[in-house]
Every structure is written in structure tokens, then in C-alpha cells.
Amino acid sequence: MRAIDTLRKRPVTIEARRTVTEAAELMNRDAVGALVVTEGGATVGLVTDRDLVVRAMPRRMGADARVDAVMTTEVATLPADADLRDALAVFRNRPVRRVVLVDGEAPVGVVTVDDLLVDLVGDLADLARPVTGQVLFGHPEPGVPATT
Questions:
Q1: Of 25, 99, 111, 116, which is the most exposed, with the fewest CB atoms less than 10 Å away?
Q2: Where are the beta strands (DSSP E) in 11-147?
Q3: Nearest-CA neighbor of 36 among 23, 52, 47, 25?
Q4: Treating both helix axes as pointing N-terminal to C-terminal, what angle do 84-93 and 113-137 enclose, rounded to 10 degrees?
């Protein structure tokens, strides 16, 4: 399965020169916890709600502070057509919760640990349904073999 096939929505982006207030407003409007920071359409960083709280607020940055002053610059990225196992390897090997999928340098999606967990729980529930039925209701009696 391709990583891009797991996406639930388009990435929300913000230009690096925008303010932390604009970032917070975008996160609130689009109900996301992270924005892909771009410059000229290319991915240059990632800013999360946590970045705003632990980087901007303790430094008493003003509401007009630029996003690029608090963003993470070492963003985990993969090509848009990467296999989902490649994203899993990134999560396994790096302390990140998001991988930005890119077409060239342009962001086309964000795969999150949260999304993968939701998918996994759904898949496990689907697998557990028949087993649960057997545990609760027993195995059906085998039919009498047909004779000729």
C-alpha cells in the first residue's frame, strides 16, 4: 500500500513569513495539530501546536512572531508514492509523529502516527469480529455430509 493512500485530508500549509497567530488560527480552523511550512511552494519546516506552546510562549514571542522562528526544520519526508512500510520505518527509527509526503519539494500530504493507529484499530476490529462471534456463540454444527 502506498503511504499517500492512507491520507484523510490535504495538508494544511503556511508560508514561513506568516505569524504564529496565523498558524494558530489555521490549526483551529482546519482542526489540525501541525502545519507544513513552505517557502515558494517547497517544504521548509513543520510547525505544531506544541511548538507554539513550548517555543513561542516561554520566549514571550509576540503574536506577530514569524512561524519560521519556532518551526522544526528537520522534517521527515518521503516521496508521495512511497510504500507505507517506508513511513513505518521512519516512525520506528526517528522520534517523530508526522511524515510529510512530497512531490518534488511540494507537500502533498502528511502521514501521522495517529492516523495509522486509527487504521490499525479498525483493521484489528474487523479481524476480531468473527473470532468474537465464535467465542460468544460457539462453532456452528457441521452439516451432515451429503450422500449419493
A1: 25
A2: 13-15, 34-39, 42-48, 77-79, 98-103, 106-112
A3: 47
A4: 110
